[in-house]
Amino acid sequence: MIDARPVDQVDATFDFCPASGTTATVEVGSGSTHATYSHVHAGATWFVGPAAPSVGGADMSVRLLVTSSSEPVPALTAQCCGGGGDQACCTLDGITVDTNGLGVGAEVGDHPAQLQSFHDATFQLLGTLTISAFIQPFENAPGRIAGSLSASSGGMSVSGTFDNTFCPALLTATI
Questions:
Q1: What pLDDT is stored for residue 48 in this prediction?
Q2: pTM, whole model, 2 decimals?
Protein backbone atom coordinates (compact mmCIF):
# COMPACT_ATOMS: atom_id res chain seq x y z
CA MET A 1 0.00 0.00 0.00
CA ILE A 2 1.34 3.45 -0.89
CA ASP A 3 1.64 6.03 1.87
CA ALA A 4 -0.28 9.09 0.63
CA ARG A 5 0.88 11.47 3.38
CA PRO A 6 2.69 14.63 2.27
CA VAL A 7 6.48 14.31 2.44
CA ASP A 8 6.81 16.90 5.23
CA GLN A 9 4.42 15.06 7.58
CA VAL A 10 6.27 12.92 10.14
CA ASP A 11 5.18 9.96 12.18
CA ALA A 12 5.57 11.33 15.72
CA THR A 13 5.50 7.83 17.17
CA PHE A 14 8.87 6.88 15.72
CA ASP A 15 10.49 10.18 14.81
CA PHE A 16 10.19 11.89 18.21
CA CYS A 17 10.30 11.04 21.90
CA PRO A 18 7.24 12.61 23.54
CA ALA A 19 7.67 15.17 26.31
CA SER A 20 4.14 15.86 27.50
CA GLY A 21 3.89 17.36 30.97
CA THR A 22 6.60 16.98 33.56
CA THR A 23 7.94 13.44 33.53
CA ALA A 24 10.85 13.91 35.95
CA THR A 25 12.14 16.00 38.79
CA VAL A 26 15.84 15.19 38.95
CA GLU A 27 18.49 17.41 40.54
CA VAL A 28 22.06 17.05 39.31
CA GLY A 29 24.92 18.71 41.18
CA SER A 30 28.61 19.06 40.56
CA GLY A 31 30.50 21.30 42.95
CA SER A 32 28.61 24.59 43.16
CA THR A 33 26.68 23.98 39.92
CA HIS A 34 23.18 22.51 40.17
CA ALA A 35 20.54 21.82 37.54
CA THR A 36 17.02 20.43 37.79
CA TYR A 37 15.74 18.38 34.88
CA SER A 38 12.02 17.95 34.21
CA HIS A 39 11.79 15.24 31.52
CA VAL A 40 12.83 11.65 31.07
CA HIS A 41 12.93 9.71 27.81
CA ALA A 42 13.16 5.96 28.32
CA GLY A 43 14.73 3.40 26.03
CA ALA A 44 15.57 -0.27 26.33
CA THR A 45 17.30 -3.17 24.63
CA TRP A 46 15.65 -6.56 24.95
CA PHE A 47 17.91 -9.61 24.65
CA VAL A 48 15.48 -12.21 23.28
CA GLY A 49 17.00 -14.29 20.49
CA PRO A 50 19.61 -16.98 20.06
CA ALA A 51 22.40 -14.38 19.87
CA ALA A 52 21.25 -12.81 23.15
CA PRO A 53 23.46 -13.35 26.22
CA SER A 54 20.60 -13.99 28.69
CA VAL A 55 20.05 -17.33 30.35
CA GLY A 56 16.66 -18.44 31.65
CA GLY A 57 14.70 -15.51 30.26
CA ALA A 58 14.91 -12.39 28.19
CA ASP A 59 16.98 -9.85 30.11
CA MET A 60 16.72 -6.17 29.31
CA SER A 61 18.93 -3.12 29.65
CA VAL A 62 17.34 0.27 30.22
CA ARG A 63 18.66 3.71 29.31
CA LEU A 64 17.02 6.88 30.60
CA LEU A 65 17.75 10.30 29.11
CA VAL A 66 17.08 12.96 31.75
CA THR A 67 16.78 16.48 30.31
CA SER A 68 14.80 19.72 30.48
CA SER A 69 13.55 19.65 26.91
CA SER A 70 9.82 20.37 27.02
CA GLU A 71 9.48 19.79 23.28
CA PRO A 72 9.32 16.34 21.72
CA VAL A 73 12.94 15.31 21.14
CA PRO A 74 13.81 14.16 17.61
CA ALA A 75 14.77 10.48 17.59
CA LEU A 76 18.22 11.15 16.12
CA THR A 77 18.98 13.72 18.84
CA ALA A 78 17.84 11.33 21.57
CA GLN A 79 19.95 8.51 20.12
CA CYS A 80 22.96 10.83 19.85
CA CYS A 81 22.62 12.10 23.44
CA GLY A 82 22.37 8.51 24.64
CA GLY A 83 25.70 7.77 22.98
CA GLY A 84 27.67 9.45 25.78
CA GLY A 85 30.67 11.71 25.58
CA ASP A 86 30.73 15.13 23.93
CA GLN A 87 28.53 14.31 20.95
CA ALA A 88 28.26 17.28 18.55
CA CYS A 89 24.84 16.03 17.43
CA CYS A 90 23.46 16.19 21.00
CA THR A 91 21.88 19.61 21.32
CA LEU A 92 20.40 18.97 24.77
CA ASP A 93 21.74 19.25 28.30
CA GLY A 94 21.21 16.31 30.64
CA ILE A 95 22.38 12.91 31.82
CA THR A 96 22.05 9.27 30.82
CA VAL A 97 21.17 6.55 33.31
CA ASP A 98 22.04 2.97 32.31
CA THR A 99 21.25 -0.31 34.01
CA ASN A 100 21.66 -3.86 32.71
CA GLY A 101 20.46 -7.36 33.43
CA LEU A 102 16.84 -6.63 34.30
CA GLY A 103 15.37 -10.12 34.38
CA VAL A 104 11.81 -10.90 33.38
CA GLY A 105 9.57 -10.23 36.37
CA ALA A 106 12.46 -8.68 38.34
CA GLU A 107 12.31 -5.17 36.87
CA VAL A 108 10.71 -3.54 39.94
CA GLY A 109 13.27 -2.88 42.67
CA ASP A 110 16.77 -1.44 43.11
CA HIS A 111 19.33 -1.78 40.34
CA PRO A 112 22.93 -0.54 40.02
CA ALA A 113 23.18 2.24 37.46
CA GLN A 114 25.86 4.19 35.60
CA LEU A 115 25.05 7.91 35.32
CA GLN A 116 26.90 10.35 33.08
CA SER A 117 26.53 13.79 31.55
CA PHE A 118 25.60 14.18 27.88
CA HIS A 119 28.60 16.51 27.39
CA ASP A 120 30.91 16.45 30.43
CA ALA A 121 33.01 13.27 30.30
CA THR A 122 34.23 13.91 33.87
CA PHE A 123 30.68 13.67 35.27
CA GLN A 124 30.25 9.93 35.84
CA LEU A 125 28.67 8.28 38.86
CA LEU A 126 27.64 4.85 40.02
CA GLY A 127 24.27 4.95 41.73
CA THR A 128 20.93 3.28 42.21
CA LEU A 129 17.96 3.20 39.84
CA THR A 130 14.88 2.21 41.83
CA ILE A 131 12.04 1.08 39.56
CA SER A 132 8.65 1.34 41.29
CA ALA A 133 6.42 0.68 38.26
CA PHE A 134 7.27 -1.16 35.05
CA ILE A 135 5.23 -2.18 32.01
CA GLN A 136 7.26 -4.15 29.47
CA PRO A 137 7.51 -1.95 26.32
CA PHE A 138 8.04 -4.75 23.80
CA GLU A 139 5.01 -6.80 24.80
CA ASN A 140 2.70 -3.99 26.01
CA ALA A 141 3.59 -0.93 23.92
CA PRO A 142 4.38 1.77 24.73
CA GLY A 143 5.24 0.41 28.16
CA ARG A 144 6.03 2.55 31.18
CA ILE A 145 8.80 3.03 33.71
CA ALA A 146 8.64 5.01 36.97
CA GLY A 147 10.91 5.30 39.95
CA SER A 148 13.78 7.24 41.44
CA LEU A 149 17.51 7.87 41.04
CA SER A 150 20.21 8.39 43.63
CA ALA A 151 23.98 8.75 43.38
CA SER A 152 26.64 10.74 45.18
CA SER A 153 30.43 10.77 45.05
CA GLY A 154 33.26 13.28 44.99
CA GLY A 155 31.10 16.41 45.04
CA MET A 156 28.78 15.10 42.31
CA SER A 157 25.21 14.02 43.02
CA VAL A 158 21.98 12.99 41.32
CA SER A 159 18.60 12.53 43.00
CA GLY A 160 14.98 12.62 41.96
CA THR A 161 12.01 10.83 40.48
CA PHE A 162 10.69 10.02 36.99
CA ASP A 163 7.62 8.50 35.29
CA ASN A 164 7.05 8.17 31.54
CA THR A 165 6.21 5.78 28.75
CA PHE A 166 9.04 4.35 26.66
CA CYS A 167 10.07 6.17 23.47
CA PRO A 168 9.66 3.80 20.49
CA ALA A 169 12.70 5.38 18.80
CA LEU A 170 14.87 4.24 21.74
CA LEU A 171 13.77 0.58 21.77
CA THR A 172 15.89 -2.17 20.25
CA ALA A 173 15.98 -5.96 20.44
CA THR A 174 18.87 -8.37 20.06
CA ILE A 175 17.49 -11.49 18.43
A1: 76
A2: 0.85
